[in-house]
From TrEMBL:
Residues 282-558 form the RagB/SusD domain. Keywords: Cell outer membrane, Membrane, Signal. The keyword Lipid metabolism does not apply. This is RagB/SusD family nutrient uptake outer membrane protein.
Length: 560
C-alpha cells in the first residue's frame, strides 16, 4: 500500500459531495478541508488526487458503505461466464440473474451506481477546474500531471456510464451550490466518447511511462483505454496503434517466469501475479498496468470484497455430515460465495492450460479440521457431494464440475470450484474477516494483448492476431493456434480463459455485440430471463424526477 491511500478518508468527503462557494456571510473555519482551502498548492491537489483514487477503488470495496451495489457487480455477472449465487429476490446483485421487474428505475442499486459515478466525475471536474487558479505555485509539468490523472479518471467513470446506460448527461465542469440544474439532457454516446478520447489523449501526452508510485495511473493506462475505445468506435487502425504502443513499451512485459513470494513453491507464472505482495510493479510485477492499493486495519487504507464475491463457503462443505474444512490462510481466508463461474467458463480450458489448473481454481481442499474428520466410505466427487481420499488431516476433498452449475443459493454452492485469483487471508486470528486488504491487480498487459488481437482480426490480419494470442497461450502452456482458428468467438473465449473475474465482461460483450446471444447460450440462469431491453440499465427515476424543467428520456422498455 502507498501513502496516498492514507489521506483518502478525509479528502474523499470533500470530493464526493456537491460543494458551495463562499457567500457573503460564510465563515472560513481553517480546520475544515474544503475545495477553497484545499486546492491552493501542489500538496492540496495531490491530496485531492488521493481522494479521487479512493473513489475509483470503491468499485471493489462497496458504495455508500455497502458490500454490494458496485459498478463491478453490473459489469462482471449476468454474462456468459459468471452469475450471482444469491436466489431470486436476494441480495442486490442477484438482480443480474433475475432482471425482469427487479431491474427497474426505482431500484436503489441502480440509483447508487449512477450517483457513485457522477460523484467521481464531479470530484475530477473540481480538480480540473481549480487547476486553472493562477495563484497556485507549481510548474507546468506538475499541473499537467495532476490534470492528466484527474481527466483519465473522469473518462474512466464515463466509460462505466456509457456501457451501463448508453446516452448520459455529459458534464465537464464542477457542480456546486450555485450551478444546480434541472434541465439536463442525455448526451449521445458518440459525443461522450469524443470527450473521453480527449481526456485520455491528454493523459497519454502528460503522464510518465511508469506510475510515479504503485496505485497511480500512467501513460499506458490511457493508451489501453484508448485502444478499447477505438474498437468500440470502429476505429480499428487507431485501436491497433494504441494497443501496440502498450505492448511494445519496454517497461512492461508478460510474466513468463516464476517470481516473488512462493516462487520456490508449486505454482505458475500466470498465478504468481495474484499473490499477496506480488501485485505491484515495485514487487516485481512488470505485467501490471494499474493496481488497487489497500491496507489491513489502517485508517484511510481501503478494503475490497473480491474474496467475499468469488471464494465459496468451503467451510460448509460436508462429507457424511462432517465439515472437515475450516477457514485458514492456506485456503485463502473466508469466502461468502456471492458469485460463481458458469459451466462454460470451465469448458474453454484445454489440456495443460495453466489458467484452468488447480493453481488458478479451487478444485479441491485439504482436510484441516481435526474436530470433524470424515468417516465411512471414500466416494468420488459427484454433483451432489464432494469426493475424498482419506480421513486424516491433509487428505483431499475433491469438487466436481461434471454437472450443472449449482442453483443460486450461497448456502448450497460450496461444492462448486471457485477462482483463486482473489484468495487472501488476514493474519491469524482474524482469518474469518471477509474483506480483502491486499493490493490487487486491476489492469494488466495481457488484456492489452487481447485488444491488439481483436484489432488485428478486424483489420483482416488473422495471422498477426494468432501471434499475439499465442504470446498468452505459450505463457500458459496452452496449445498454440494458427490464423484459421481466429474469430470473434475464439477471442472472447480467450478473454474468459485469461481474464475471468478481472475484465468487465459485460462491457466486452456489449462492445462486440454479443452479450445477449452469448448470455442466452451459456448462462442458464440469466439467459432464460433477459430481454433485449436489458442491454442497458434503466435511468434512475430519481434522476428523471429531479430534472424538473426538461423531460429526460427513459431507456427503451423501462417506461412506467
Amino acid at each position: 500500500m502507498n501513502k496516498f491511500t492514507k489521506l483518502s478518508l478525509s479528502i474523499i468527503l470533500v470530493l464526493s459531495s456537491v460543494q458551495c462557494r463562499k457567500g457573503f456571510l460564510d465563515e472560513e473555519p481553517k480546520a475544515i478541508i474544503a475545495p477553497d482551502n484545499l486546492y491552493v498548492n501542489k500538496a492540496g491537489f495531490d491530496a485531492g488526487l488521493y481522494g479521487l483514487y479512493s473513489q475509483v477503488r470503491s468499485e471493489r470495496k462497496g458504495i455508500n458503505g455497502a458490500s454490494n451495489d458496485l459498478t463491478s457487480t453490473a459489469a462482471i455477472i449476468g454474462v456468459d461466464n459468471a452469475y450471482s449465487l444469491y436466489p431470486a429476490g436476494g441480495a442486490a446483485e442477484s438482480v443480474f440473474n433475475d432482471f425482469g421487474v427487479r431491474m427497474n428505475p426505482t431500484a436503489g442499486y441502480i440509483r447508487n451506481l449512477w450517483e457513485y459515478l457522477y460523484q467521481t466525475i464531479n470530484a475530477a471536474n473540481t480538480i480540473v477546474d481549480r487547476a486553472d487558479n493562477p495563484d497556485v505555485e507549481w510548474t507546468e509539468d506538475e499541473k499537467n500531471q495532476v490534470l492528466a490523472e484527474a481527466r483519465l479518471i473522469r473518462a474512466w467513470a464515463y466509460r462505466h456510464l456509457t456501457y451501463l446506460w448508453g446516452n448520459v448527461p455529459l458534464n465537464l465542469h464542477e457542480s456546486d451550490g450555485n450551478s444546480i440544474r434541472t434541465d439536463w439532457e442525455r448526451t449521445p454516446v458518440a459525443e461522450v466518447r469524443a470527450a473521453m478520447e480527449q481526456d485520455w489523449l491528454f493523459a497519454e501526452a502528460h503522464l510518465p511511462d511508469v506510475p510515479v508510485m504503485d496505485g497511480r495511473a500512467s501513460k499506458v493506462v490511457a493508451q489501453h483505454y484508448l485502444a478499447e475505445l477505438y474498437l468500440a468506435m470502429g476505429e480499428n487502425e487507431k485501436a491497433r496503434e494504441k494497443a501496440q504502443a502498450v505492448v511494445s513499451n519496454g517497461n512492461y512485459n508478460l510474466i513468463t517466469a516464476r517470481y516473488g513470494v512462493n516462487a520456490n513453491q508449486p505454482g505458475t507464472p500466470f498465478t504468481d501475479m495474484f499473490l499477496d505482495k506480488n501485485s505491484n510493479r515495485s514487487e516485481g510485477n512488470r505485467e501490471v498496468l494499474w493496481t488497487f492499493q489497500n491496507e489491513y486495519l489502517t485508517v484511510g487504507g481501503d478494503v475490497n470484497i473480491m474474496r467475499r464475491w468469488w471464494v465459496n463457503r468451503y467451510n460448509t462443505i460436508k462429507v457424511n455430515n462432517k465439515t472437515p474444512i475450516t477457514f485458514s490462510v492456506e485456503n485463502g481466508g473466508r469466502g461468502i460465495g456471492r458469485f460463481a463461474a458458469t459451466k462454460y467458463a470451465f469448458s474453454v480450458y484445454g489440456p495443460g492450460d495453466d489458467r484452468g489448473s488447480y493453481h488458478a481454481w479451487r478444485y479441491f481442499y485439504l482436510i484441516n479440521n481435526p474436530s470433524s474428520l470424515p468417516t465411512g466410505s471414500k466416494p468420488t466427487a459427484t454433483c451432489a457431494a464432494p469426493g475424498w481420499t482419506g480421513s486424516a488431516l491433509g487428505d483431499t476433498i475433491k469438487l466436481s464440475i461434471d454437472c450443472e452449475e449449482p442453483n443460486p443459493s450461497a448456502t448450497t454452492a460450496q461444492n462448486w470450484p471457485s477462482t483463486r485469483k482473489w484468495d487472501w487471508a488476514p493474519p491469524p486470528p482474524d482469518v474469518e474477516n471477509s474483506s480483502n486488504y491486499n493490493d490487487q491487480v486491476y489492469l494488466r498487459l495481457a488484456e492489452t494483448y487481447l485488444l491488439l488481437a481483436e484489432a488485428q482480426f478486424k483489420l483482416n490480419d488473422p495471422s498477426g492476431a494468432a501471434t499475439t494470442i499465442n504470446a498468452l497461450r505459450n505463457r500458459a502452456h496452452a496449445t498454440p493456434i494458427d490464423a484459421a482458428d481466429v474469430n470473434m468467438n475464439f477471442i472472447l473465449d480467450e478473454r474468459s480463459r485469461e481474464l475471468f473475474s478481472e475484465e468487465h465482461r459485460r462491457y466486452t460483450l456489449l462492445r462486440t455485440g454479443t452479450w445477449f446471444a452469448r448470455t442466452k447460450q451459456y448462462n442458464r440462469f440469466t439467459g432464460a430471463k433477459i430481454a433485449l431491453r436489458d442491454t442497458l440499465l434503466p435511468i434512475p427515476q430519481s434522476v428523471i424526477d429531479a430534472n424538473l424543467t426538461k423531460p429526460m428520456e427513459q431507456n427503451l422498455g423501462y417506461d412506467q
